[in-house]
Structure to design on (80 residues):
């Protein structure tokens, strides 16, 4: 299982409590722990890169519906 999949599992475990306290905010999970709650994706991403470099880590918006991409969509980061 990939590191990001483990982070997703930890997010799912914390989902109910996060939705109670921080609906609409953005969370950062890294190394199987909640590392911060932020008002915007940009704040979460800036903090993640400053603290953990290129990752892996998970940034999710609390209460947002999951985004499902078609199998034909591939992502290739420009730094790879």
């Amino acid at each position: 299982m990939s590191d990001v999949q483990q982070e997703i599992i930890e997010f799912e475990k914390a989902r109910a409590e996060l939705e109670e306290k921080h609906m609409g905010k953005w969370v950062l999970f890294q190394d199987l722990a909640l590392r911060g709650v932020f008002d915007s994706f940009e704040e979460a991403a800036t903090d993640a890169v400053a603290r953990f470099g290129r990752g892996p880590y998970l940034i999710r918006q609390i209460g947002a519906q999951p985004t499902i991409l078609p199998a034909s969509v591939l992502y290739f980061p420009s730094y790879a």
User: Anything to note?
Assistant: The mean pLDDT is 87. The helical segments are 3-22, 41-52. The longest helix spans residues 3-22. The beta strands are 26-30, 33-38, 58-61.
